[in-house]
Design goal:
homodimer, alpha/beta, Rossmann fold, 3 domains, 6-stranded mixed sheet, 12 strands, about 45% helix, about 15% strand, DNA-binding, DNA-binding (chains A, B), Lambda_DNA-bd_dom_sf (chains A, B), HTH_LacI (chains A, B), LacI/GalR-like_sensor (chains A, B)
Amino acid sequence: MTPRPRATYSMIAKEAGVSEATVSRVLNGDSRVDGDRAKSVLDVVERLGYRKHRAATALASGRTNLIAVVIDNDLSIFSDPFWGTVTSGISRVLMENELQTLLLVTSVSSIDGPVAHYLQAGEVDGAIFFQLHKDALVRKLAKTGLPIVIAGSPHAATDFVFVDTDNFGGGHAATKHLVNRGCKKVAIITGDIETVAGHQRLDGYHQAYRELGRVPAKALTAYGDYSYESGKREMARLLADQSDIDGVFACNDLMALGAIAAIEERGLTVPNDVAVIGFDDSVVAQTSRPGLTSVRQDIVALGEAAAELMIAQLRNEPVEPRILPTQLVIRASA
Amino acid sequence: MTPRPRATYSMIAKEAGVSEATVSRVLNGDSRVDGDRAKSVLDVVERLGYRKHRAATALASGRTNLIAVVIDNDLSIFSDPFWGTVTSGISRVLMENELQTLLLVTSVSSIDGPVAHYLQAGEVDGAIFFQLHKDALVRKLAKTGLPIVIAGSPHAATDFVFVDTDNFGGGHAATKHLVNRGCKKVAIITGDIETVAGHQRLDGYHQAYRELGRVPAKALTAYGDYSYESGKREMARLLADQSDIDGVFACNDLMALGAIAAIEERGLTVPNDVAVIGFDDSVVAQTSRPGLTSVRQDIVALGEAAAELMIAQLRNEPVEPRILPTQLVIRASA
DNA sequence: AAACCTTGTGAAATCGGTTTCACGTTCACG
DNA sequence: CGTGAACGTGAAACCGATTTCACAAGGTTT
């Protein structure tokens, strides 16, 4: 029951009758070791239930097997299930590849904060960032050669490796669906337009109009901030302005629910008077009444893709940004 | 711009004109070092922007400064914002205390899996587990002396350190509130009754009845599983059985919404015919219509408390389990 | 048959801290 | 004053792996 003392190379070497160097070679897949010796080393390793000591390995090799997942807690971390879900996907894939997930929840804003130092100090082999407004820090880190993946699109002019949902396609599909079901005047309530994701959804909306040979009136675009309240407020404003709006694409589910509330408060019904589509297909979309039609994004897959891109970078394999498809989930609201 | 080579003890020692041992003493708060020398060491440290090398420190000292957060992905990780929120609280507090959060999303079920080995191998200084059904693994780890904290109550007969929401008090307050607003026949839809949390909420319900000098009929207890569907199904069943139920406490918000759906499908209204209370005060409670009265638990605080208990253990300070209060948030549904 | 590669191997240095140990110094006390 | 305790200090061992380097053995080229 007493936990036997940790096995070390020196014990293995002695048991197997070889040198520590050979043990290291075997365990790191150096092909030059004689077959029989390799086998006997592996036997001893097996018998002793040996596992490498992380710190020792890191110190000697310079590789930590740690990947940082950096989450800016300036954002609405505390209520949004998004990041937790992505992170679980990341963690699973990393673990399958013998990498560990180091979670850094912190204010990323400062380019010179403790996180910055930490990441530069070679304490991790790579870092996965969630979408952020300021990418100065990321850019600086990239210069040091630290492998980086961004979950969510970075700002336009960079060449970071990133994974993202197809926001454009989602916005396009949502708008198209509204048009196809007969809506004549489709409005949009955007999310934070400062973020790339927010902008891309709007672009998708525009594109759908363009394909009809039309251009959406400026007045049909309302600017929300992803909150329930903003959805409600903007919808009320839209309807007060143009009572003949018969469809609305809200850039997330919460705003969609807010919009529905505003519509019903005006005595109109969903979807008969105004059809509503949200984005995310979160739990609120599934449980709201009427059920909310929404653009589903596969958040776990997003995390997994991020991890895969990180691993590819560590292996010096070529990497391409990855855009994951969305799927329109049709419920009662549109 | 070239990242200057990492500073080391030997550089600091030379610069400050002392030995490496003294540098170590200064940096680890050994009080015996002469004041002036200490100062000069600190000056050099400052000037060089020195930071300790984690792996080296871990190797030499046997302490890793890493705390594992172990999440069982057998659970409904992927949609539940709960764990992500707790984890962010944990991470913040740990970071403030110079500890890092190592995230392990994995199947904890096996007592002999890779995680088990990992945790036993001294790779982390402590582990925080989320509530789990089987605590065999945790018990085994505890025997090795690894500091452990459980987020959520462990099974009854153990003496693990844990933090939890006051499930009993929450269930009690919810039931009491229904009674106080005039409900004569209050039902409950439980969550997974196998979990301690699930059971405690039910106990709170019972206690409220007891204080009225009554015992709730067996038929008023319906067993759900925290899903929207189970809430809807059980509520329908309850009403089919006993149409005079006028209040229901659902053990989470999702089931509460399901219950509301069932109630309205029957042609009844909330809260006039049946008042409904949920648990969690999650985003769905805030955005549903009618607004859902719910028992709020402070999830971030839960994580922070977990981290604090871990830190106390690492310092060998005495630790007591911590039960965090709940708060009834009253909206339209009850 | 001399000169030159391979290939497989172990001794030893190395990574960057921590900790033990032994050696002065200084100080208090008898 | 002599003596033991307390204090500061640096040399060196140590943590557990990786990696360099030297070398022996066997195989190829001229």
